[in-house]
Amino acid sequence: MSVENIIKEVTGELERLVTTKTVIGEPVEAAGKTIIPVTKVSFGFGSGGGEGKGDKGETGFGGGGGAGAKIEPIAFIVVSEDEARLLTISGKTDLGKIIESVPDVIDKIRSVKSKMGKKKEKSEVSEEAEHEGDDE
Fold it and tell me: Rounded distance, CA 66 to CA 18, Å?
């Protein structure tokens, strides 16, 4: 395998790994909103090779290549019926804050749903009471 072939193989694998789907993630539906992750992708590669002749006149080739990639979340696009917002992550602590706030958000959603359910029950009970008086 020549150095040129090694470079082609390494860059081909990088091209396969780093796509637009890697940068803009799959949308997630939650609480009536669509959340789309945005990431930063960094990558690098190197390769090399050489030919030589041994003491006995035989020739040989040696080569190798390698690559590395880093994928880091940098923002989330939050889309609702009314608006689209970009929530950036400025540092590692912000990601921690987002993760820490998830249970609070879930509790608030449950609380709102519970209150809405209780209001619906009360309105159904009051409607039934109004209709009971109509029978007389």
Answer: 15
The secondary structure of the chain as a DSSP string is: --HHHHHHHHHHHHHHHS-HHHHB---EEETTEEEEEEEEEEEEEEEEEEEEE-TTS-EEEEEEEEEEEEEEEEEEEEE-SS-EEEEE--SHHHHHHHHHHHHHHHHHHHHHHHHHHHHHHHHHHHHHHHHHHHT-
Question: Does pTM surpass 0.70?
Answer: no
What integer is the mean pLDDT of 30-59?
A: 83
* Residues 79 and 25 both lie in one domain: yes
Number of domains comprising the chain = 2
Is residue 105 domain-shared with residue 71, that is, in the same domain? no
Structure tokens, 20: 């637009």
Read off the pLDDT of residues 83-120 as tens digits, 9 standing for 90 and up.
888 888 875 555 556 666 667 777 777 777 777 777 76
Same domain for 78 and 39, yes or no, is yes
- CB 48 within 8 Å of CB 3: yes
Give yes or no for residue 23 having a pLDDT over 70. yes
